[in-house]
Design a protein that fits this description.
heterodimer; A: six-stranded parallel β-sheet; B: six-stranded antiparallel β-sheet; 4 helices
Chain lengths: ~650, ~160
């Protein structure tokens, strides 16, 4: 189903994705070692001997050849709902089998639909899709367990303020409270506190109305998940004509594209405060991305000569290549005297952002009730972020803050110099792969090699490894960086996020348009990959060009807190030297096992060749060791964070 | 020009006024004032990491001090040496003026007693307004520094989240 609408249809029937063919093509890439060739030949021989190579079923190609059919009356409840989804621009659906009537109807409308191995991972995929496109994506699971498998991902999407539409079947109203059959339950309470809006639909004639209301919730104010349940009486209801449905209007009759604009008085107060500032800074967060306000942001920053730093669930709305970017200048943040927070939905408490106690604060947020939460404000502006930034850009005079921007530049250089020290320290440890080596060489590859630095969409995940990689990551265009399990901090969503991001890039949705089809890179940890590694099979069957880099230090990130507790330390450890690369190979992906720092770059290049030339996933298992977190033995040890900016993750 | 010397009451008022302003802006919570057993004025408030902090004002010695602000840092520990370096660096001429503690106007230092670190600022020439502003900013920067370089310390001693 997922390939129905793809601009890159699958070309071959019953394709053979055995390791033999895989590696033969990959060998055209640079840096293949003799040892790797020998290992691959052994694997190919094993494939040939068994006669059972991994194949994608012919049904995938058959589905790709079929055209979407728009439902017309007479239609059922699922089709009526799917019509709303199509009209409202639902951009993708991620599912596992179940909730068939709804899933099939949405797929029939031509909305890209994908099926994975676990509902939770697919819900993470929907979240990931939202966070790199700004569009709405849906996740679906069957009633009962399929739905509850999504709970963690819904919670993560809620914390990240993602407009994920959660859909679940709900058996049938007629079986209410009977425990007839299986999987019965009232599902809405399970998402209490994890959603913006939820509804178990009980009146079939109002399915269109509630569908429309769900999209109004998703598209207005601060986005968060919306959860709808579909009992069989609703999804299978039959409607002969539109008159059978209540409130069956065109969307121009049930909603508006108008957005709240800033109050002129508040705007004037903000301009006056900015005019008095010597060291102003803008914090650009989720709201700038979802309101597509990056052009207005740039205009305001350049006209006012105002530094810009990012935070939030995604990054890249303001290019790190810009002279005003303070993303990688943590040392300058405490100097700011006026801070303009825009679309900072997840607010830090006092002291969590590095701005000093004398800094004055302006906050732009679409929700009146949220202004002033956690951080005291000097000026509050209730508005759509784009409308407010456009108005401010028009209202502020042209200003210059040369000394301040020079201070930001100096702080940026100091930070980059520190990263170089970390890299040299990491590269000096030759018996395992240090995280600084991964971070430096990966970002050299993405930003300073043959690839355009704007090209690669990146999923930044993991725990300890993320504290390194984030310091090196840079965003050069909107939707380029997906900031892991932002704020909620769950373990293991990264491969799900990467799948959603890869679908977005494949279809060229929103800001991913210019990079359609490009490989996506994801970094995660060995604890995290254990949760979702089966989705490598999903990526493989859909031929998604995802490169997953696993930082394998044989331990949960929590082990350091138990380092002095011999009784409990083992609770935080795995078996050492586990071969996640081989698991990946068994699922149809390409695998690399990297045990020394000098081997990482070659493995990355081989995987990129495979992704770019064959549109297939890879997994690079980087063998590290847990002791890298001990500063006294392996400087720089476990790293902290300074927010906002490239390191920010909590807010 | 000779600056007029404020009386001890004036000095305390100046510090109180500066701190009260932070409280009125919502930076400090639960701001209140009392005296120590030795009769020194103490300002108490909740600020960073959600913990109560105490700032004593010794106008006789011209010293402002955040008392026992960091627990669990023995005097002979590498972390204490690191902290001393950080405090000393606040006087660095390479720092922008708005971030620096000007040696001509104040001197910052830290001490560790019974494993708890206190941060002090000796005010020179009765520049209490400057001193109050600098020590508050210095402590803010100290916590930013700890978040950057000592995350596990904050997890163990301030209930900071591990991630």
């Amino acid at each position: 189903m997922g390939e129905n609408q793809s601009d890159e249809p699958i070309k071959n029937t019953a394709r053979d994705v055995s390791r033999r063919k895989f590696i033969t093509k990959a060998m055209t890439g640079a840096g293949v070692t003799a040892a790797a060739i020998l290992a691959d030949e052994r694997a190919a021989a094993a494939d040939a001997a068994s006669g059972n190579s991994i194949k994608i079923p012919a049904e995938f190609d058959e589905a790709a050849r079929l055209r979407a059919v728009k439902a017309e009356f007479p239609m059922n409840g699922a089709q009526a709902f799917a019509r709303v989804c199509k009209e409202e621009g639902l951009a993708a659906l991620f599912s596992c089998p179940g909730n068939y009537a709804i899933v099939n109807a949405i797929a029939q409308e031509g909305i890209p639909t994908y099926s994975g191995r676990h509902e939770g991972a697919m819900c993470h995929a929907a979240d990931g899709f939202c966070r790199v496109t700004g569009e709405i994506a849906a996740a679906s699971g069957t009633e009962g367990p399929g739905f509850t498998n999504m709970i963690n991902a819904i919670a993560a999407a809620n914390a990240a303020r993602s407009p994920v539409l959660v859909l679940a079947s709900n058996v049938a109203l007629r079986t209410e409270d009977t425990e007839a059959g299986i999987q019965l339950g009232y599902q809405q309470p399970n998402t209490e506190g994890l959603k913006k809006y939820g509804k178990r639909l009980i009146n079939p004639a109002r399915v269109h109305e509630y569908g429309a209301y769900a999209f109004r919730q998703l598209r207005s104010g601060v986005p968060r998940p919306v959860h709808l349940d579909f009992p069989a009486e609703v999804s299978r209801a039959s409607f002969k004509a539109s008159s059978d449905l209540d409130y069956f209007y065109d969307k121009t009759k049930y909603r508006t594209d108008a957005r709240p604009h800033p109050d002129p008085k508040a705007l004037r107060a903000a301009v006056e405060l900015l005019k008095t500032a010597q060291r102003p800074i803008i914090v650009s967060s989720n709201g700038v991305f979802y309101s597509r306000a990056w052009d207005a942001l740039k205009k305001l920053a350049e006209k006012g000569d105002i530094a810009v730093v990012e935070s939030g669930a995604m990054k890249g709305q303001f290019s790190d290549a810009h002279r005003l970017s303070a993303n990688a200048a943590p040392g300058a943040l405490a100097s700011a005297d006026v801070v303009l927070l825009v679309g900072q939905y997840c607010m830090p408490t006092i002291g969590e952002f590095a701005f000093g106690p004398d800094a004055r604060t302006i906050r732009i947020d679409p929700n009146l009730e949220d202004i002033g939460r956690n951080l005291p404000i000097d000026v509050g502006i209730v508005s759509c972020e784009r409308a407010a930034l456009e108005a401010l850009a028009d209202a502020v005079p042209t200003m210059k803050h040369d000394a301040w921007i020079a201070e930001v530049a100096a702080a940026r250089k100091k930070f980059e110099d520190e990263l170089e020290v970390f890299y040299r320290q990491g590269a000096s440890y030759t018996d395992a792969v240090h995280p600084a080596v991964i971070a430096k060489e990966l970002t050299d590859f993405m930003y300073r090699g043959k690839l355009p630095k704007e090209q690669t969409t990146f999923v930044s995940g993991g725990y300890g490894i993320a504290r390194y990689v984030r310091r090196w990551l840079r965003g050069y265009r909107p939707g380029q960086i997906l900031n892991g399990a932002y704020q909620y901090g769950d373990i293991g969503p990264d491969l799900g996020y990467a799948f959603g991001a890869a679908v977005a890039v494949r279809h060229g949705v929103g800001p991913q348009g210019p990079y359609q089809g490009a490989p996506v890179i994801c970094v995660t940890g060995d604890a995290g990959i254990g949760y979702t590694i089966m989705e490598l099979e999903t990526a493989s069957k859909y031929r998604m060009p995802i490169i997953v880099i696993v930082y394998n230090n044989n331990a949960w990130g929590t082990w350091t807190g138990n380092a002095r507790s011999p009784l409990t330390l083992s609770l935080h450890l795995f078996q050492e030297n586990l071969r996640y690369d081989k698991v990946g190979e068994a699922l149809g992906a390409h695998g690399e096992y990297v045990t020394t720092p000098d081997a990482f770059r070659g493995a990355l290049e081989r995987c990129y060749q495979i992704a770019a030339n064959e549109s297939r996933p890879s997994i690079i298992n980087c063998q590290a060791k847990k002791e890298f977190w001990i500063k006294q033995r392996y400087e720089p040890g476990f790293l902290g964070t300074v927010e906002p900016g490239c390191m920010s993750y909590n807010h | 020009m000779v600056r007029p010397r404020p009386s001890s009451r004036d000095a305390l008022s100046i510090v109180r006024e500066k701190l009260q302003a932070y409280a009125e802006r919502g930076v400090f919570q639960g701001f209140c004032e009392h005296t120590t057993r030795r009769g020194l004025p103490v300002f108490r408030f909740v600020w960073l990491a959600g913990r109560p902090m105490e700032l004593t004002v010794d106008t006789a010695k011209h010293v402002l001090r955040f008392q026992q602000i960091l627990p669990g840092v023995p005097a002979r520990s590498p972390m204490y040496a690191q902290l001393k370096g950080f405090i000393a660096d606040r006087h660095d001429r390479d720092l922008p003026e708005h971030r620096r503690v000007d040696r001509r106007r104040a001197a910052a230092s830290c001490t560790s007693r019974s494993g708890s670190v206190s941060i002090s600022l000796a005010v020179k020439h009765n520049q209490y307004a400057y001193g109050a502003n600098r020590i508050v900013n210095l402590v803010h920067e100290l916590f930013v520094y700890l978040r950057d370089t000592c995350p596990e310390y904050l997890v163990e001693n301030f209930d900071a989240p591990q991630e």
